[in-house]
């Protein structure tokens, strides 16, 4: 049996105080109420960096340039009906004010407090990498 592979790019925005932005999934979406790193599905013909530039604009209203996206790690997680491959990028520079355009809420969190927020299973293994980075 073959499993569908879904490629999703995620970004850990880090502010000048060393806090990471997480976003709460809105009602009506899969895994509603859980906290995640912003990002989205990589569309056909799109590179992960292009996905993040597009998604961060759509979801948060900020402009990110590609040189400001640094790959950190990735998650590979088997959900019941698909397998998720998710590269996580770090970004410390952007233009505009971060605004919740598609999420229920946003939170700026110190890396060592990220585990206080329930996350989708694929996001959880990314947390130690951010703790050791910051």
* Mean pLDDT across all amino acids: 94
What portion of residues belong to β-strands? 25-35%
- Cα distance spanning the termini: 41 Å
What is the subunit arrangement here?
A: single chain
Give unreliable regions as ranges.
none
Helical fraction equals 10-25%
Structural class call reads alpha+beta
The number of helices is: 2
**What's the main sheet like?**
4 strands, mixed
Taking Cα atoms only, what radius of gyration do you get, to the nearest Å?
14 Å
Strand order of the largest sheet: 4-1-6-5
**How many strands?**
7
> What is the general shape?
globular
* H/E element order: EEEEHEEEH
What does it look like?
It is built from two helices and seven strands. It has a four-stranded mixed beta sheet, with helices on one face. A three-stranded antiparallel beta sheet has the order 3-2-7, with no helix packed on it. It is of the alpha+beta class. The longest helix is centred in the middle third of the chain and has 13 residues, at 48-60. A hairpin with a 4-residue loop joins strand 5 and strand 6 (83-91).
Quick structural overview:
The chain has 134 residues and is an alpha+beta fold.
List key phrases describing it.
4-stranded mixed β-sheet, 15% helix, alpha+beta, 3-stranded antiparallel β-sheet, 134 residues, 2 helices
């Amino acid at each position: 049996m073959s499993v569908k592979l879904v490629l999703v790019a995620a970004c850990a925005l880090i502010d000048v105080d060393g806090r990471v932005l997480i976003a709460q999934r809105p009602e009506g979406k899969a895994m509603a109420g859980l906290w995640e790193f912003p990002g989205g599905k990589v569309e056909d013909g799109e590179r992960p960096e292009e996905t993040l530039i597009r998604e961060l604009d759509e979801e948060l209203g900020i402009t990110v340039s590609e040189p400001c996206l640094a790959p950190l790690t990735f998650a590979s997680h088997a959900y019941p009906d698909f397998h998720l491959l998710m590269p996580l990028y770090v970004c410390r520079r952007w233009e505009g004010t971060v605004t919740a355009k598609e999420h229920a809420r946003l939170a700026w969190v110190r890396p060592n407090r990220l585990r206080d927020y329930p996350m989708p299973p694929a996001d959880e293994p990314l947390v130690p990498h951010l703790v050791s980075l910051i």
